[in-house]
Amino acid sequence: MSLVLDPTAQDLLFREARTANTFAEEPVTEDQVQAIYDLVKYGPTSMNQQPLRIVLVRSVEARERLTEHLSEGNRKKTADAPLVAILAADNEFHEQLPSQFPHFPQAKELFVERETRERSARLNALIQVGYFIIGVRAAGLAAGPMTGFDAEGVNKEFFGDGKHSALVVVNIGKPGENAWFPRSPRLTYNQVVTTV
Amino acid sequence: MSLVLDPTAQDLLFREARTANTFAEEPVTEDQVQAIYDLVKYGPTSMNQQPLRIVLVRSVEARERLTEHLSEGNRKKTADAPLVAILAADNEFHEQLPSQFPHFPQAKELFVERETRERSARLNALIQVGYFIIGVRAAGLAAGPMTGFDAEGVNKEFFGDGKHSALVVVNIGKPGENAWFPRSPRLTYNQVVTTV
């Protein structure tokens, strides 16, 4: 085998891990979320921008406000999940660059234009979404990432400041009964990879 | 500890893994790339879209064509890396949906509009970039992801069909001498995570 990663870890993070559609009642604790963050925060971003922001939707009232903006098919599973997280890009991430990228004090100035900033925030936060999903699995939990929602509605509802863009909503918990659809196929190596 | 993932794997993928800026000469084999793909292909995407495409830039001639479009500071390390991969979104991913999302035969029709398609391709391919970087590390290799390049130039040079959007260029190999800059800080949990 060409991988160094232990096969058990391969299974946990990729091969056996699946998108869950139902969840057990067991809660997801603050400690678990903290452990996930303390792992995935090390994933690299351009100039250490780290634009990903995470809103844990725990209260009944907030959960109701969220589900309203989800597409029909995503509502019930989101209402029932032990934890729901809104993953968003902070379009003002550049404010943190002086402390986060200290060896290049001018970094912040590269992002004075809002369009440049939003594009970079979105790009890097989405890469971080990939890390986060792996992190949820590293905690022995199942993730149910969803893009079927009204992003503008969620932004208004949860980020009134106009400075954040919701990207993905993720249900998190131990899988429940009949949690999985059958595994869908995957593209072959030759369909995805070319050499020049 | 709240994580199930073995601490050695945590170190390999996140805690000890670093963005490499120099590389050893040892080549990255086709077998290694295949093993990486065969792991990360299982990472979830919306409706199993799998829009990520990977171009392995192996020939001297192709490497020269690529480095021309990189920002100054990225050229030398890319010229010297054992392997360079262009990670791109396939904006025509919807053509694969009938085979990749067979239980919903109408899926392809949701993406007849080019703008909707490109937005979804970009979103999901970027999440897959996150998986890919983790996969490179799972193979015991260092990744050096870069966004400092002229994307339009790379698209014209390597994807003449107008159907692909380059997202990230990644140098891959065993780390060389002085491969690391000092680790930059990370945002705290409270700077990133809020609860509602």
TrEMBL record, chains A, B:
Residues 17-174 form the Nitroreductase domain. It comes from the Bacteria. The keyword NADP applies. InterPro entries: Nitroreductase, Nitroreductase-like, Nitroreductase_HadB/RutE, RutE-like. It holds the Pfam family Nitroreductase. Keywords: Flavoprotein, FMN, NADP, Oxidoreductase. This is Malonic semialdehyde reductase. It comes from Streptomyces lannensis.
